[in-house]
Amino acid sequence: MASAKEKLDGVNVRLMGLFKAEKQTMMAFNGLAQAATRAGKISPAIKELTAVAIAVAKGCEDCIVYHAAAAKKHGATREELAEMLAVSVEMSGGPGAVYAAKAVEIFDELP
């Protein structure tokens, strides 16, 4: 089973491949991502935790890995993650609980 770091590396490799295949679109998408997660009234850490919660509700493990790493990089704590995941589970039920558990595992494995 791949580690969280290996999973993150895989996500980044796949995204880079898409970037090379469709640079203009991915540059625009990157700009959107940068603008959406900028510091403002809500911190980048909370914005990334929100992205993790949405990824959990959508069942996207690659997105969970990517945004959990970004949340941790911005200083999000395990406790903040757990609170955000509680809302995600509320909104997505049993499948959300399964992906939320993956999110905690991934967060804990990341440096």
Strand segment tally: 0
Low-confidence stretches: none
- Structural class of the secondary structure composition? mainly alpha
Using the CA coordinates, give the radius of gyration.
Answer: 14 Å
Distance between the termini: 18 Å
Mean of pLDDT: 97
Shape field: globular
Q: Which sheet architecture does the biggest sheet show? A: none
Strand content: under 5%
Classify the helix fraction into a percent range. over 70%
Please provide the ordered H/E string of secondary-structure elements.
HHHHH
Helix count, DSSP H or I runs of 4 or more residues = 5
Descriptive account of the structure:
Helix content is 83%, strand content 0%. The protein has 111 residues and is mostly helical.
What's the layout of helices and strands?
Layout: H1 4-21, H2 23-36, H3 44-58, H4 61-73, H5 78-109
Helix pairs in contact: 1-2, 1-4, 3-4, 3-5, 4-5
Question: Briefly, what is this?
Answer:
This protein is mainly α. The protein has five helices and no strands.
Structure keywords:
single chain, 111 residues, globular, mainly alpha, 5 helices
